[in-house]
Amino acid sequence: MIKTDALIIGAGPTGLFTAHQLKLIGLSCEIVDNLDKIGGQCIELYPDKPIYDIPAIPECTGEELTNNLIEQLKPFNIKFHLSERVEEVKKNNEIWQVKTNKGTEFNTPNIIIAGGVGSFEPRKFSPKECEKFENKSIFYAIKDKTIFKGKTVSIFGGGDSALDWAIELSKDSKVNLIHRRDEFRGAQASVDKMNELAKSDKINLFTKYQLKSVKGKENLEGIEIEHDDKEVKNLETDYVLGFFGLIMQLGPIANWGLNIDKKTISVDTEKFETNQKGIYAVGDICTYPGKLKLILSGFHEGALAARACFKLARPNEKYRFEFTTSSKSIKKRLGVKE
Amino acid sequence: MPKITYIEHDGKTHTIEVASGLSVMEGAVQNNIPGIDADCGGSMACATCHVYVKDEWFNKLPKKEDGEEDMLDMAFEPKKNSRLSCQLMVSDQLDGLVVNLPEKQV
User: Fold this and answer.
1) Which of A186, A292, B32, B80 has the most CB atoms within 10 Å of its CB?
2) What's the whole-model pTM score?
3) Does the model's ipTM exceed the 0.90 cut?
4) Buried b (16+ CB within 10 A) or exposed e, B76-96
């Protein structure tokens, strides 16, 4: 059980800067994120795209912004819990009890949801029957590649994951690579390599095809794929892999008794508190009259929510507003030598 | 004002006036038309404003930019006539446009 003054859900730019604000005013905090890396949408959706509207930074990419925020947090040594998703939130005597899918438990008076549009989850195949084979013969990520040895593997997708795995698995498995169009969006070197392997029949390439159905009762026996012009092919296969990228799902947040409207959480604009005392929402996931989905708005919202956390974390102390330029205690927390 | 028709997957039809300069996605979101999520807010960074456009209109639309087709790879059941509605800017030329919404976005 981890005790902390505040728990932040989401390690995107808003979550990171909120952590900075909490630590600056002397509160402890930890961060949970479902992705395996820090940065949220900035890192997952647009690491290389330039952003032009961060105050005082004329231009930076999503990756640079993330790295700078991590750098800014360095004095504070914050504990991140990556690849973990918060599942349960319960209240006990004014304290929130939080549990993740990996069993990590937190006790905290304050939860700050900086969850963007929810957690990133793999886009799955649309035929309903796929569910019953999931994690048995249909996968959206690979944990142990040895299970594919000597088997037939059908890989769907046109990005780097699909290409890299098609190339890698073609060494020891029979590989079908299926993609909805002729162009692949992966790295050119991988596309070239894959085309080479397709030419020498190491990879069976099917473009303009998509998954139509899967066959088999207990075990997966085969799949049907359908061409743009409706022609259907049957493929025998032992395994099916789908690499369609990640989509955002609100997930368990929907079950915590919060006022949710169109995937966003209503908050006040003083503390950015939700309808539940001690739960705040900041960044893209919160909504209020005039809300702008900008990174800079998330920074402002996080700064105010952090001050609100102080009251519940230190009920017997009075919060004093201080500037980083002049406050001795803040400089001490930052490790600045005078 | 140009009229845009949104047909939900179950056939429910909404014809609304959308101001020129807004995207087809914004027209739907501002008028509370269900079936267009637009998670990323129109930055072409997700594929949750996905629509199908019938041939007669599809060929009249401005061509897809780089990146839109890549994003459509991640959409729910993309087809040849798929578009991201955040990339379709409403103008008088688009008056009467009909878009069909997929069964779901995520």
Assistant:
1) A186
2) 0.81
3) no
4) bbbeebbbbbbbbebeeebee
